[in-house]
Amino acid sequence: MATENTVTTLERMANLLRIRSIESTQAANSGHPTSCASMAEITSTLFFNVMRYDP
């Protein structure tokens, strides 16, 4: 079970992903920012909490 701190961190990361995807699609004058925004929660949870990623 995720702690309250973990949930808050993941929510912040999801919001940051939304902001960055909107900025990127705006800068490129192309893309689908709504698709990116809708996947932000899933992506932040998988990438920053579930997957074992060690660059």
In short:
This protein has helices at 4-28, 33-38, 40-50. With 55 residues, it is mainly α.
Protein described:
It contains 3 helices and no strands. It is mainly α and 55 residues long. The protein has one domain (4-50). It starts with a helix and ends in a 5-residue tail after the last helix. InterPro entries: THDP-binding (IPR029061), Transketolase-like (IPR051424), Transketolase_N (IPR005474). Residues 11-55 form the Transketolase N-terminal domain. Keywords: Thiamine pyrophosphate, Transferase. This is Transketolase N-terminal domain-containing protein. GO terms for molecular function: thiamine pyrophosphate binding; transketolase activity.
The overall average pLDDT, rounded, is 91
Low-confidence runs (pLDDT<50, min 5 residues)?
A: none
Domain count, please report it: 1
Count up the helices: 3
Percent of sequence in beta strands: under 5%
Tertiary shape: elongated
Notable characteristics:
mainly alpha; 3 helices; 55 residues; 76% helix; elongated; 0% strand
Task: Describe the SSE topology.
Layout lengths: L3 H25 L4 H6 L1 H11 L5
Helix pairs in contact: 1-3
